[in-house]
Amino acid sequence: MSSGTDDETIDAIGRSIMRWQDATQDFDEAFGRLHGLSSPERRCLGLIVFGPQPARAIASETGLTPASITALLDRLEARGLLSRQPDPNDRRKIMVSITRKAQVMAEDAYGPIHREGVALLEGYSAAEREIVLRFVTAAVEMQNRLTAEFLARHAGKKAEPERPGQRGA
After folding, report:
1. What is the DSSP code (8-state) at residue 123?
2. Prediction pTM value
3. Residue 158 resides in a domain
């Protein structure tokens, strides 16, 4: 049984996470507008910024069909933001890598966030950081599971068109 103070703290954490999600989305959308990148294009670059990824993994992570992922990779490659090469271990697979141009763009935007985030986390003890990691990992897993369940419950429903300026809840 939780106390009123515990309930208030849990509610405050939930509201803060919602604000963090909105702030992150605002930043990502601003980055996209500045560089002419769609949400799937930003997500693709975010996946490959830490190392080459198979095209199939990018398709899976973005939810795009093979034809759509090919078109997305073609656009980003034409802009000099990624390169494709055969997987050295399985030449039937294509590995997608970020280019120096895209690395510079990412560092300009996300480098300060990374550095300040590290500094913020360094203000916590190792034990506290373990709790934060455990919470964030569980929250991501929960969100992914609930997203899949939501989509399964609403499979076959026609989506309403997004209105200009509309944001997700």
Report:
1. T
2. 0.81
3. no
Give yes or no for a contact between 95 and 52, defined as CB atoms under 8 angstroms apart: yes
Domain containing 74: what range?
A: 11-123
Give 113-138 pLDDT, tens digit per residue: 999 999 999 999 999 999 999 999 99
Say if 133 falls within a structural domain.
no
Q: How many domains does the chain have?
A: 1
End-to-end alpha carbon distance in the chain:
30
Read off the pLDDT of residues 73-111 as tens digits, 9 standing for 90 and up: 999 999 999 999 998 888 888 999 999 999 999 999 999
Rounded CA-CA distance 119/116 in Å is 5
| Tokens (6 digits) for 32 | 């996209």
> What CATH number did the domain enclosing 25 receive?
1.10.10.10
| 137, 151, 164, 68: CA torsion to nearest 10 | 90
Tokens standing for 121?
A: 């986390």
Element housing 41 (H / E): helix 39-48
Rounded CA-CA distance 23/40 in Å is 18
Confirm whether 156 is domain-assigned.
no
1 is a domain residue: no
